[in-house]
Design a protein that fits this description.
Elements lengths: L14 H8 L7 H13 L3 H21 L5 E5 L9 H8 L4 E6 L2 H6 L11 E6 L9 E2 L5 E2 L15 E2 L2 E2 L1
Parallel strand pairs: 1-2, 2-3
Antiparallel strand pairs: 4-7, 5-6
Helix pairs in contact: 1-2, 3-4
The structure holds S-adenosylmethionine.
S-adenosylmethionine binds next to helix 1, helix 3 and strand 2.
Protein backbone atom coordinates (compact mmCIF):
# COMPACT_ATOMS: atom_id res chain seq x y z
CA UNK A 1 0.00 0.00 0.00
CA UNK A 2 1.17 3.61 -0.51
CA UNK A 3 3.15 5.61 2.06
CA UNK A 4 0.03 7.14 3.48
CA UNK A 5 -0.37 3.86 5.37
CA UNK A 6 2.40 5.00 7.69
CA UNK A 7 0.19 7.90 8.74
CA UNK A 8 -3.20 6.19 8.81
CA UNK A 9 -4.31 2.61 8.73
CA UNK A 10 -2.11 0.47 10.88
CA UNK A 11 -2.70 1.89 14.35
CA UNK A 12 -6.15 3.42 14.05
CA UNK A 13 -9.15 1.91 12.31
CA UNK A 14 -10.17 3.67 9.14
CA UNK A 15 -13.71 3.74 7.76
CA UNK A 16 -12.66 2.89 4.18
CA UNK A 17 -10.64 -0.08 5.42
CA UNK A 18 -13.46 -1.31 7.66
CA UNK A 19 -15.74 -1.14 4.62
CA UNK A 20 -13.12 -3.03 2.63
CA UNK A 21 -13.11 -5.71 5.35
CA UNK A 22 -16.91 -6.02 5.39
CA UNK A 23 -17.06 -6.34 1.62
CA UNK A 24 -14.48 -9.15 1.64
CA UNK A 25 -11.48 -7.09 0.49
CA UNK A 26 -7.88 -7.67 1.52
CA UNK A 27 -6.73 -4.05 1.95
CA UNK A 28 -7.30 -3.82 5.68
CA UNK A 29 -5.42 -4.29 8.96
CA UNK A 30 -6.09 -6.12 12.24
CA UNK A 31 -7.16 -2.82 13.79
CA UNK A 32 -9.78 -2.36 11.03
CA UNK A 33 -11.00 -5.92 11.35
CA UNK A 34 -11.29 -5.56 15.14
CA UNK A 35 -13.28 -2.32 14.80
CA UNK A 36 -15.38 -3.88 12.03
CA UNK A 37 -16.19 -6.85 14.25
CA UNK A 38 -17.11 -4.56 17.16
CA UNK A 39 -19.48 -2.58 14.98
CA UNK A 40 -20.93 -5.80 13.59
CA UNK A 41 -21.57 -7.01 17.13
CA UNK A 42 -23.74 -3.91 17.66
CA UNK A 43 -25.33 -4.02 14.19
CA UNK A 44 -25.21 -7.67 13.12
CA UNK A 45 -26.47 -7.00 9.59
CA UNK A 46 -23.98 -4.31 8.69
CA UNK A 47 -21.53 -6.50 6.81
CA UNK A 48 -24.41 -7.77 4.67
CA UNK A 49 -25.50 -4.18 4.00
CA UNK A 50 -22.02 -3.34 2.76
CA UNK A 51 -21.93 -6.35 0.44
CA UNK A 52 -25.47 -5.67 -0.79
CA UNK A 53 -24.57 -2.02 -1.46
CA UNK A 54 -21.55 -3.05 -3.50
CA UNK A 55 -23.59 -5.53 -5.53
CA UNK A 56 -26.28 -2.88 -6.06
CA UNK A 57 -23.61 -0.54 -7.48
CA UNK A 58 -22.60 -3.17 -10.03
CA UNK A 59 -26.17 -3.95 -11.06
CA UNK A 60 -27.10 -0.27 -11.30
CA UNK A 61 -24.12 0.61 -13.48
CA UNK A 62 -24.64 -2.43 -15.69
CA UNK A 63 -28.32 -1.56 -16.12
CA UNK A 64 -27.50 2.05 -17.05
CA UNK A 65 -24.81 1.02 -19.54
CA UNK A 66 -26.63 -1.96 -21.01
CA UNK A 67 -30.29 -0.92 -21.00
CA UNK A 68 -30.17 2.89 -20.99
CA UNK A 69 -27.14 3.47 -23.18
CA UNK A 70 -25.42 5.67 -20.58
CA UNK A 71 -21.70 6.07 -21.21
CA UNK A 72 -20.78 8.84 -18.71
CA UNK A 73 -20.73 8.11 -14.99
CA UNK A 74 -20.02 10.28 -11.94
CA UNK A 75 -19.25 8.05 -8.94
CA UNK A 76 -19.30 10.17 -5.76
CA UNK A 77 -18.04 8.32 -2.69
CA UNK A 78 -15.73 5.99 -4.56
CA UNK A 79 -14.14 4.11 -1.70
CA UNK A 80 -11.08 1.91 -2.12
CA UNK A 81 -10.52 0.10 -5.41
CA UNK A 82 -12.36 -3.19 -5.29
CA UNK A 83 -13.62 -5.85 -7.66
CA UNK A 84 -16.16 -4.56 -10.16
CA UNK A 85 -15.52 -0.86 -9.73
CA UNK A 86 -17.81 1.42 -11.72
CA UNK A 87 -15.49 1.77 -14.72
CA UNK A 88 -14.91 -1.99 -14.93
CA UNK A 89 -18.64 -2.72 -15.02
CA UNK A 90 -19.42 0.14 -17.41
CA UNK A 91 -16.54 -0.51 -19.81
CA UNK A 92 -17.34 -4.21 -19.96
CA UNK A 93 -20.61 -3.17 -21.58
CA UNK A 94 -19.46 0.01 -23.33
CA UNK A 95 -15.69 0.10 -23.82
CA UNK A 96 -15.86 3.84 -24.56
CA UNK A 97 -17.55 4.65 -21.22
CA UNK A 98 -16.16 7.59 -19.26
CA UNK A 99 -16.08 7.63 -15.48
CA UNK A 100 -15.16 10.36 -12.99
CA UNK A 101 -14.60 9.19 -9.44
CA UNK A 102 -14.96 11.64 -6.53
CA UNK A 103 -13.98 11.11 -2.91
CA UNK A 104 -12.73 13.35 -0.09
CA UNK A 105 -10.75 10.74 1.81
CA UNK A 106 -6.93 11.02 1.60
CA UNK A 107 -6.59 7.25 1.80
CA UNK A 108 -8.88 6.79 -1.17
CA UNK A 109 -6.84 9.43 -3.03
CA UNK A 110 -3.66 7.48 -2.26
CA UNK A 111 -5.19 4.39 -3.87
CA UNK A 112 -6.84 6.22 -6.76
CA UNK A 113 -4.12 5.37 -9.27
CA UNK A 114 -5.34 1.77 -9.27
CA UNK A 115 -8.72 3.00 -10.49
CA UNK A 116 -7.34 4.82 -13.48
CA UNK A 117 -6.70 1.77 -15.62
CA UNK A 118 -9.41 1.00 -18.13
CA UNK A 119 -10.07 0.41 -21.78
CA UNK A 120 -8.09 2.34 -24.41
CA UNK A 121 -11.36 3.76 -25.80
CA UNK A 122 -12.73 4.94 -22.46
CA UNK A 123 -11.61 7.61 -20.01
CA UNK A 124 -11.31 7.56 -16.23
CA UNK A 125 -10.48 10.43 -13.92
CA UNK A 126 -10.38 10.97 -10.19
CA UNK A 127 -11.26 14.14 -8.27
CA UNK A 128 -10.18 14.73 -4.69
CA UNK A 129 -13.30 16.70 -3.75
CA UNK A 130 -16.07 16.96 -1.19
CA UNK A 131 -19.70 16.23 -2.02
CA UNK A 132 -20.64 19.15 0.25
CA UNK A 133 -18.61 21.61 -1.78
CA UNK A 134 -21.45 22.76 -4.01
CA UNK A 135 -20.06 26.15 -5.20
CA UNK A 136 -20.77 26.39 -8.96
CA UNK A 137 -24.24 24.83 -8.22
CA UNK A 138 -27.28 27.07 -7.80
CA UNK A 139 -29.51 25.83 -4.95
CA UNK A 140 -33.12 26.15 -6.10
CA UNK A 141 -35.80 27.52 -3.74
CA UNK A 142 -36.68 26.59 -1.02
CA UNK A 143 -33.13 25.32 -0.46
CA UNK A 144 -32.27 22.35 1.75
CA UNK A 145 -35.44 21.47 3.66
CA UNK A 146 -37.29 18.44 4.93
CA UNK A 147 -37.90 16.37 1.81
CA UNK A 148 -41.64 16.26 2.57
CA UNK A 149 -41.69 20.08 2.39
CA UNK A 150 -39.75 20.58 -0.84
CA UNK A 151 -42.27 22.25 -3.17
CA UNK A 152 -44.99 20.04 -1.74
CA UNK A 153 -48.35 20.96 -3.29
CA UNK A 154 -50.06 20.67 0.10
CA UNK A 155 -48.53 21.06 3.58
CA UNK A 156 -47.42 17.74 5.08
CA UNK A 157 -45.57 17.01 8.35
CA UNK A 158 -41.80 17.43 8.09
CA UNK A 159 -39.78 14.23 8.10
CA UNK A 160 -36.18 14.09 9.36
CA UNK A 161 -34.70 13.59 5.92
CA UNK A 162 -33.41 16.65 4.16
CA UNK A 163 -33.18 17.37 0.49
CA UNK A 164 -32.42 20.13 -1.96
CA UNK A 165 -31.99 20.53 -5.67
CA UNK A 166 -28.86 22.08 -7.11
CA UNK A 167 -28.65 23.21 -10.72
CA UNK A 168 -25.40 23.64 -12.58
C1 LIG B 1 -19.27 3.36 2.25
S1 LIG B 1 -18.04 3.98 1.17
C2 LIG B 1 -18.72 3.46 -0.37
C3 LIG B 1 -17.68 2.90 -1.32
C4 LIG B 1 -18.21 2.42 -2.66
N1 LIG B 1 -19.00 3.44 -3.35
C5 LIG B 1 -18.99 1.14 -2.56
O1 LIG B 1 -20.19 1.16 -2.87
O2 LIG B 1 -18.43 0.13 -2.18
C6 LIG B 1 -18.43 5.72 1.18
C7 LIG B 1 -17.36 6.60 0.56
O3 LIG B 1 -17.88 7.94 0.51
C8 LIG B 1 -16.83 8.84 0.80
N2 LIG B 1 -17.40 10.10 1.29
C9 LIG B 1 -18.08 10.30 2.46
N3 LIG B 1 -18.44 11.59 2.58
C10 LIG B 1 -18.00 12.22 1.46
C11 LIG B 1 -18.07 13.58 1.00
N4 LIG B 1 -18.66 14.52 1.73
N5 LIG B 1 -17.53 13.90 -0.19
C12 LIG B 1 -16.92 12.93 -0.94
N6 LIG B 1 -16.82 11.63 -0.56
C13 LIG B 1 -17.35 11.27 0.63
C14 LIG B 1 -16.00 8.13 1.85
O4 LIG B 1 -14.69 8.64 1.91
C15 LIG B 1 -16.08 6.68 1.36
O5 LIG B 1 -14.97 6.37 0.55
Amino acid sequence: MPDIESRIGTTRPHTALIWNYWTGGKDNYPVDRAAGDEIRALHPGIGDYAKADRLFLGRAVRHLAEQEGITQFLDIGTGLPSADSTHEVAQRVAPDARVVYVDNDPLVLAHAQALLVGTPEGRIDYLDADLRDVDGLELLEPGAVSCSAWRAPTPTPDVAMYAGVGRK
